[in-house]
Fold these 4 entries.
Entry 1:
Amino acid sequence: MDNKPSVKEPEVKNGRLLRWSKGILTAAGAILLYLLISLLVSFLYALICSMRGVTDPGEVRELVNNNASLLNMVVNVLVIMLLIAFSFTKRGKPTERLRIHTINPAKVIGFILFGICLNLFVSLAFSFIPFPDSLVEAQNEAYEAYYSNNILMALISVGVATGIAEELLFRSAVISPLKSAFGKIPALILSALVFCLFHVSLIAKIYSFILGLVLGLFFLKYDSVIPTIIIHISFNCTAFVTGILDNARREFLIIICVVSALMLARMFIWLYVRYPGFSDVLFDRGGRLRPVDPAGQILYDRIRELREREEEIERKELEELNEAWDDLHRKKKRHTVQEEIAEKRKEEPKVPENRTPHFSEQDPEDHQEKQEDEKDLSADRSDSKEGEDTHDETV
């Protein structure tokens, strides 16, 4: 008999509610921190303006627009500093809590190109959608303050600082607790919704929701904020260049949109679908990549031993391990296909071997051919019987 104590249903519900509340409160605390810092910076700037004798709301608004990049820079730097500071107050390494894990250096260029192509595709695809003029004007007015002043300051503030701060906030500090509470898919959707709500115009909310889903996918796949920071920075910096395409011909824009979509699909397969690859395991210094099957674990250990050796690695040895890696993944795909075929066969209704199928289970053409064969057989039997009777009479 099994003497293990049974877990009562109220205790399971209480544990689930505790996990949900902890995840929601942790994510909400990080978002509240960002809002408080933004309000504090705005209040201090308004106080400075009043001390200088500027009290007219129109003049204050004009000063805010002229210094929008600087104020955004201050907010983002404070958010980054406070998130790093809070990570030191918890148990474990700060890099582990913020998910700042190293990645394969060979994929850095791929992430940069992915962010550029993603911005081109989304911007051009949205340009073909007939949005109302009021929404387009609101979108231009919301970001005109960043692009009309010092471009270098705007590039550093909006392109770099915003990318780092928002990834540490919406990916590291929001997705991680929500994933522990609700799972990957709800955490991905909730974080993308929160991320889009922090953007001003409706058009910006739509494309930021798409961007949030893509960045969340890469964050959950790599368990690191480094890929999402690179994609986000390249996405934001490309926005300063896409303005030159406003007066381009429609055919040219369609070609760029299609090419960027094809490049996106190709790089998504390389960066996301085929992760982890052989080089990813080779550069995995923290040992975070854990295969499920024992054969994969043995190969992982061999690759790590090869990396940790101090002497120079021979090219032949690398090629042998790379071939073994490819063979392992081919076997996995073949095994998966065989499992799918076996499951489909199980779902098919089985017909007993000794049972003749009913007419409704037979093909109509096969049934007609069978009837014709039976008629021919009966005619042959009658002919042979008449021949026997004639022979008897003759005898």
Entry 2:
Amino acid sequence: MKKILLVDDNEHDRMLYKRYLKAHPGEESMELHEASSGEEGLAMFAALRPDCVLLDHSLQDTDGLSLLADLQRLTPPNSLCAIMITGSGSESLAVRALNNGALDYLMKQHFDRELLHKTVRHAIEKNEWRQYQANYHRELQAANQQLARTNADLDNFVYAASHDLRQPVNNLRGLFEEIRRAASFADPSDAQLLPFMDKAIQALSTTIDDLATVVQEHRQPTTQAPEPVALADLAADVLAVLHPQIAATKADITLDFSEVPEVPYVRSNLRTILLNLVANALKYRRPDHPPQVRLRISGAASQPVLEVQDNGLGIDLATHGQELFQLFRRFHPHAAEGTGVGLFLVNRLVQAQGGHIEVESEAGQGTLFRVFLAAAS
């Protein structure tokens, strides 16, 4: 049952409001309370915490706007349900009442039972909805803060773990090299185990390094300032790093940055994005076709789109599209070694700058990555 507080120094008006608000058959009853002065109204409000207050503007000991301000101080922000009632038709008074927190405004002698009933119900519903939204946003903010703390704790754990594991893995590598140098085998076939051990240690070391890279990228400040990045120069840097793979695979790399030669971006992030996408194009090639990799830029300078297209193994997006950017997810483990970190890291860096990635691919036909680079602020 909703509690309604009537604050009016005119007994006849209070009786009228009580009669109007009395429930008819089929209507929800209201619990009505009366106060004949502003002072009494404040005391009763503090004790009852009503769902709605009908507040007369012209009281003997105060005015409605002052009392409205006093009531606001007794409640959390945006939680007071009050309807101002006045005997005058001043438009400026109505505006002041609404601006000072009243949810509605009525003039005496200008409303009947139906209008008063509807006004009170609507004000209560509006206030309840306002409270629901406020609570929802508080809960959402608390959940987001908790999620941020959890993610930070997880990143810190993974970073610390990857850091702490490096030394044992280095020790293991040293012991293995000593065994390979000094050990002799009665059965020559036993020596064939050494390459498998070497490969396993290398895979473990690479996984630990990749974990540290992912977390380190996330731990870096997100406020790194974008700078004008000349794409031709950046691509030349990336291709120089990948020169051994390009030469070994006889890859054909074509560049077209004529449409947008320069983009505003965090240079180190864009280098990592391009390096990983081109490296994947070389790594996951079809064995009977030399890699053909095309790098181009399109769109306007305010929203450039970097495209990396290859003729490699491709990906069945109908099967794997939802997991394309998941950590440690690999789609061609038989084709080349890897940890499944590259695409995860690329997607994370792009999203951190406000961009996104679209992918077109077909198994056996190659892949096209469209990287929508967000404009620098």
Entry 3:
Amino acid sequence: MMRLLLLMFTLGTFSTGYSQNWNELANYSGGPMDDGCSFTIDNIAYCGSGRDSLFNVSADFYAFNFATEQWSEIGALPFSMRRQYATADTYNSEGYVFGGINQEGEYLKDLWRYTPAGNTWDYLGQAPFEGRAGMQSFVIEDTLYIVGGRTATSDAVNDVWAYDFTTSTWTAKNDMPNDGIWRGFGAVYNGTGIVGLGSDSTFTKRGEVFFYDASQDSWTEMVALETEPMSYPAASVINDRLLIYGGIDTLDVIRNDFRYLDLTNLAWNSLNSFPDVARRGVMTFSSSSDFYISTGLTTTERLDETWVARDVANLEEVIAGVKLNVRVENGVLYLFDDVSDCYLYNSLGAEVPLIPMSAGVYQLPAGLPAGIYFCQAMKNGQLSSGKIHIQ
């Protein structure tokens, strides 16, 4: 356990990177708004709902084309289904919107599906749990996971529910090991759910990050990844990076920070801060290389602006330590460096036992599941890392 904690602390070192540029694009066609939701299908991001400058919630949705970087109107939810603080995800080239809060302040638990081919919305029924808003969500294989959120009876809950797209059924999963989470972030990377930050049931802002293993229905708090407490972060995964813009800190200041968690070595890296007035409650989406934010609320007004951070997937890698030259063949791990104290960890930070065969050569355990693993060793007096894809 001591060795695992030392590893995670080293991986959590905050380092600095360069250098993407921010550019302002065409305004969101739905007007000034905050706390909408978004999902992406192929080359188009679909954004909608939220609360406007007259304090009315919205049912409208608009499509943003990554090729032209222009907005166009699409079919709206039924007007009676307008909402704020919903969550949205993609599955099999269709978009899904869940929950939120309506104009009357009622917490919702309905699920809707958008089909681009027909430009239509289909009602998929009510969830068998308390309505909620500001929850986190992600999709792993054929399942949508709804995590936490605010309800009519709690400022933040920690329960987790799974919707099976193939059977259209809901199942309760293990709770997050925390005191609730509202307006944090939810993401998925190589089949692992990632949830963090946000506010808890006492409305205290949190800085923890958790990984979710769907095959085991288990949560792991990544202690070394704990960062500055923040609610309202805007997050998206591009390649091996979890990018996060802004949020509200413990002094209730809206921040303009932009950073990413390198998911290959679990290190935080800073990027160029957003150059305009800070905002929260933005809609976030990403292409294969660019990170977008649209709308949002400043300390004084709602906005309709859309901005992009270019080429964030092509930044030069910044890691804590030196990369290892490592590969796996026929169940054997080979290190092509003069190293000592070699350890292997899975994507959740658990150590995988290695059997030494000779200098720099180790036998892997039989039946090791496919996935991403991290090899750690001392090289030239530095803790060094290498990522391995086991098929």
Entry 4:
Amino acid sequence: MNESEGDLLTQEEIDALLAELEAGDEGGDLEPAEEAAFARLLGAVAGAAAPALGLQAPDTGASDADVEVVPVEEAHEALSGGALVIDVSGPVQATVAVGPGGVPSQAPDEPAVQAAAAEIRRALEEAAVGGVDLQAQWQDQPDLGKGSAQDPAVVARWGVQGPVAAALLREVRSLVEQSAQARQQAAEVPLAAAAAPAAAAAAAVQSAGRQAEPAEYPELDPAGDQAARAAIELLYDVPLEVTAVLGRTRRQIGEVLNLGPGSVLELDKLAGEPVDLLVNGKLIARGEVVVIDEHFGVRITDIVSRAERLKRMR
């Protein structure tokens, strides 16, 4: 045997190095911006799932989140006490697990799981991930998907009493990228609409083979403005139905038939969470409940943006 043969790597050592290199390409140290994006996205999911697990909902920001990349087998160990596993489908396929962080926990009942699923869906849609379909179920031994035990996964923790969220690194990155693309498209729509008339005018001039000339516009007619204002004022006395929605819930027929005096219905909103203000069934604002001379009222804290209203119309 040559002296150099003693320095050759075995096949097992080569496979181990390749696995390390592949994990290094997928993982590595997270950039601060990437870590913050992961914390916000996973925090939105964990915050929606926490009430069903009896945990304190975390802040969805990155300030109090501990985010790290670990092998998926370590992520499974971090959730060994059981977790709510959410399989997301739609624009992006992903599996996110939220649990108490290795502390054995009792499985939540089915109504609590379904309520958490509805809140998680809304949290992802508000994060601009787009329309998603998802299924949620409790697993005593959570599984983040098939693959190698060394696949990199993202684990986010929020304190000792807070939840732990975990997902495969590539899937979290796909969700964040989808969110960024959706936000960019939403920002480009007004710009494209504003640029369309100018682009059409330039194309018309170019097709005619003429040089562009300054446009002349007629002076505004004050009488026309007054007529338009008067036309709008005709609608001032049209009645509109304004509804404040404290919360919603879904129940089976048997549960509804069993309702009686003293029955308590748990709604999908948390204590202190803003209520929805609907005008003719359309969400226009959110606010907080107040009491005015022995009557309930709503103090508006947020007006729904035009982009959000358009997204709800799709």
